[in-house]
Specification:
heterodimer; A: alpha/beta; FAD/NAD(P)-binding domain; 3 domains; 5-stranded parallel β-sheet; 15 strands; 36% helix; 18% strand; globular; B: alpha/beta; 7-stranded mixed β-sheet; 9 helices; binds flavin-adenine dinucleotide; binds iron/sulfur cluster; binds FE2/S2 (inorganic) cluster
Chain lengths: 485, 283
């Protein structure tokens, strides 16, 4: 790194404008407002355009980060967008929800010595800026292809080449967008009444506005992708039937949505929700707008959320927005071990979420009507490191506490949903019940049936699900079109 | 995609209605015991309703519902030719049907409709089906003649004695169990207290008893746990592990409590809906 380039980078990271905490907990609007043009140019200017960019290796789909930021530095927004789109079909989403600190930004050279450099380039924020700004500048008459690929025109439609995707989350959407741009006819079968997977039923509006997901889906529709909602793979249609109907390949992207519970007494009390139920009611069912929307959720003054990942943060911040006075995150380990994105954890704390670390849930206490009254927890301390290298929480004998709450949300992970898997004969699963898929192509034990995303890896990230979708899409295109891409 | 209503039959005015819905892929795969989840508008709640009958050739599915709150009241405003925005199914595990001899199918209230599809399945398998149905009075009895077309016996109980036995279905059931020691299974579908009572009656006889749990549901595909019930001391998801379970091991008290979870919100929603209807009528 030359002296002059280091100087260029020495400015601290450009802050993301946000809604003030006390204001935003009273609405359901997006918290992070997005860079202005000046912010974006200032931040792009911090990137020193390394000869050997380390950042790229941190991104699961190896986006040419240097390339897109380079275009932005030159003021070429469409050029920057084109680079992103070559690797990532949902840049506006990833810019918002990727755990950048452990991925791209975690590797950026400027992060190695933050006192001197001002910290890593805010790659995610720039990615969001490029995607949002490009979309906003698209003229009404521009083709969907521009939005999906950055190119003016896509290939001619090839309606005889049909591919089905089961599940409508980021993995399948990537397959659909990629293949549609090549002229292949894709049908997406989604069990719920809206497409988007976790992006619509899980991640709240205040973190990922649903309009952004809808924009992408509309563009795919314009390219001929057909979305069949309310279709449960394995129930309303089987993989075999899809082939019988003339589909040449099937991609399975059904996610890992089966909620895990704690298996503690009282867990079926009224007021104890899985994070999936809580978030699905509020996001998919728009229960934050009850009774204008019909799906109910009840408000509670005191809420505990068990777990400390993104899902837990989303649930905790949702509870605040529904009017809770105190919301605690109950976690067996300490703040340092919390798996949530840094930004989410920080935002949660700013908003007043209380961290109750070193507490393991023991029992859900309820009144005679089975309504939750409190969460009994076991106090813990950190012991020896376990196999994962993290220090294991150990119970402190006899030290328990009752946290008075009327609502508890359990966010301690998910498992694969077996509906489709059980209905698909010959589909090989691993010992945890996830689909076994080829690491290079995503092909499963059944010829021309591919799988990717959480149903293969277990709960992971949006970008890794998309990366898997992309690999399969390439292989499918190669087989159907006979070309190497 | 939307789902057209091909036929509407008001079974009990203002209370119970049958809809025949055009949904070929659901009809093709539906088995007795399955249910659908539908919404009445793009702001609607996802509500589960049992498939009361289906015709794979015609591509239709019949549902019968009781108006109890906002969503069912709104559903009751749909007329022939109108379409439902969402109709998802078939969901749930189908009823376990095997050739086994004599099966008693007990239905109460709207549950008779759901029971009808199951009884039909048993009859098609070659089982002798005894149907026992109950209602408050003669005018509220459902599916009596339909059941008669394939059940050699249809026993009726009404609260007021306007037809059949005066009293509860459980009394008729008990009598039947006393008379006939060769009953291989009892299936009961209806209000929770009725299913609970049936399970209580059959217990001493040691007869296998199947009940269908109408827990509150959201997704209906195992992804939320809203529908969890305790069966045999274990937590089960009614939508994917059921909805049918061994009636002798179900924790009915818990189910009853959980069904009341959102009562205040449900009342608020219904009051608002009724108010809007009145305004629309210009009152
Ligand atoms: C609350 C929450 C917050 C998260 N936050 C982040 C974050 O900030 N950053 C990040 O990178 N990741 C985050 N994740 C994880 C990320 O969302 C997932 O890893 C990603 O969505 C997986 O994508 P997928 O396509 O594999 O599956 P999903 O997004 O789970 O989509 C699967 C879809 O398949 C449908 N489906 C299931 N079964 C069937 C069937 N039988 N037939 C038809 N359709 C079916 C489901 O309804 C769903 O729509 C979060 C997850 C949750 C739950
Ligand atoms: C597997 C299954 C099959 C069913 N089959 C039938 C049927 O064939 N005919 C019929 O009339 N009813 C059936 N029900 C019950 C039906 O789903 C409820 O009556 C309906 O959801 C009530 O909605 P509402 O808005 O009109 O009333 P609400 O005012 O919302 O509720 C009235 C009562 O209905 C129950 N309920 C509310 N929301 C739900 C929900 N999302 N899921 C389940 N129950 C709920 C609660 O106990 C509540 O107190 C079935 C339920 C299940 C789980
Ligand atoms: S997709 Fe995610 S990890 Fe990759 S560059 Fe963008 S923000 Fe970073
Ligand atoms: S490592 Fe950081 S400074 Fe280097 S090219 Fe990547 S983003 Fe720019
Ligand atoms: S309704 Fe969601 S798991 Fe059964």
């Amino acid at each position: 790194m030359s002296e002059s380039s280091l100087k260029a980078a020495k400015r601290p990271r450009t802050d993301m404008p946000t809604q003030p905490p006390m204001e935003r907990i009273r609405n359901y609007l997006e918290v992070a407002l997005g860079y202005t043009e000046a912010d974006a140019m200032a931040e792009a200017g911090r990137c020193i355009q390394c000869k050997k960019p380390l950042c790229r290796k941190g991104c699961p789909v190896e986006i040419d980060i240097k390339g897109f930021i380079g275009q932005l530095q030159k003021g070429d927004l469409p050029g920057a967008y084109k680079v992103l789109r070559d690797y990532n079909s949902l840049p506006a989403v990833c810019g918002r929800v990727c755990p950048q600190e452990t991925q791209c930004e975690g590797e950026c050279i400027l992060g190695k010595n933050p006192e001197k450099t001002g910290g890593p380039v805010a790659i995610g924020r720039l990615e969001r800026y490029v995607a949002d700004t490009f979309a906003a500048r698209l003229a009404a008459g521009d083709s969907a292809c521009i939005q999906l690929t950055g190119e003016a025109a896509c290939r001619m439609e090839r309606p005889e080449l049909r591919v089905a995707c089961i599940g409508g989350g980021p993995a399948s959407l990537t397959v659909a967008g990629y293949l549609a741009a090549l002229g292949i006819k894709v049908t997406v079968y989604e069990a719920l009444h809206e497409v988007g997977g976790v992006l619509v039923y899980g991640i709240p509006e205040f973190r990922l506005p649903k309009d952004i997901v809808r924009r992408e889906i509309d563009a795919m529709k314009a390219l001929g992708v057909e979305f069949k909602t309310n279709w449960v793979g394995g129930k309303a249609i089987t993989v075999q039937e899809l082939f019988e109907e003339g589909y040449k390949a099937v991609f399975i992207g059904v996610g890992a949505g089966l909620p895990q519970f704690l298996k503690v007494p009282g867990e079926n009390s009224i007021g104890v929700f899985s994070a999936n139920e809580y978030l699905t009611r509020v996001n998919l069912g728009r229960a934050y707008d009850f009774p204008n929307h019909d799906t109910p959720i009840f408000k509670a003054d005191n809420v505990a959320v068990i777990g400390a990942g993104n899902v837990a943060m989303d649930a905790a911040r949702t509870a605040l927005r529904l009017g809770a006075k105190t919301v605690s995150i109950v976690y067996r380990r300490t703040k340092d071990e919390m798996p949530a994105r840094h930004e989410e954890l920080e935002h949660a704390i700013e908003e007043g979420v209380v961290l109750r670390c070193l507490c393991g849930p023991m029992e859900c206490l309820a009144d005679e009507n089975k309504r939750l009254t409190g969460l009994k927890v076991q106090k813990m301390c950190l012991g020896e490191p376990d196999a994962s290298g993290r220090r294991r929480p150990v119970a402190i004998e006899g030290e328990t506490e009752v946290i008075p709450v009327e609502l508890a949300v359990i966010a301690v992970g998910t498992r694969p949903n077996p509906i489709l898997l059980e209905a698909t004969k010959g589909l090989k699963l691993n010992k945890w019940g996830y689909i076994e898929a080829d690491a290079e192509t995503g092909e499963t034990s059944i010829h021309n049936v591919f799988a990717g995303g959480d149903i293969v890896t277990g709960a992971a990230t949006v970008i890794s699900a998309m990366g898997a979708g992309r690999k399969s899409a390439k292989e499918i295109a190669k087989r159907l079109l006979g070309m190497d891409l | 995609m939307s789902y057209r209503i091909l036929e509407k039959k008001v079974l009990i005015p203002g209370q119970t209605t049958l809809l025949v819905v055009d949904a070929p892929h659901v009809a093709k795969h539906a088995k007795p015991g399955n249910f659908v989840i539908l919404r009445t508008s793009d702001k609607g709640e996802r509500i589960p309703l049992t498939i009361a009958d289906c015709d794979p050739e015609a591509g239709t599915v019949s549902i019968v519902f009781l108006v109890v709150g906002k969503s069912t009241a709104e559903l009751n405003t749909f007329e022939e030719g109108m379409s439902l925005p969402d109709f998802c199914g078939p969901l749930g595990k189908p009823t376990h049907i095997e050739k086994q001899g004599t099966v008693i199918c007990v239905g109460g209230g709207t549950g008779v409709a759901a029971m009808h599809h199951i009884a039909k399945g048993h009859a098609a398998m070659g089982n002798q089906v005894v149907a026992i149905i109950g209602a408050r009075n003669k005018d509220l009895l459902l599916f009596c003649s339909e059941l008669g077309s394939f059940c050699p016996e249809v026993l009726v109980a009404t609260d007021d004695g306007s037809v059949g036995h005066k009293g509860f279905v459980t009394e008729v059931l008990k009598q039947r169990l006393d008379e006939d020691k060769n009953i291989s299974e009892v299936v009961a579908i209806g209000p929770v207290p009725m299913m609970e009572a049936v399970a209580k009656v059959t217990k001493p006889y040691g007869v296998k008893t199947t009940v269908s749990l109408n827990a509150i549901m959201v997704d209906g595909i195992g992804m939320c746990g809203a529908c969890r019930c305790t069966v045999g001391g274990e937590t089960k998801f009614a939508c994917v592990d059921g909805p049918e379970f061994d009636g002798h091991t179900v924790d009915f008290a818990e189910l009853r409590m959980r069904l009341g979870q959102f009562r205040p919100q449900e009342q608020e929603s219904m009051a608002l809906f009724q108010h809007k209807c009145k305004c629309a009528e210009g009152k």
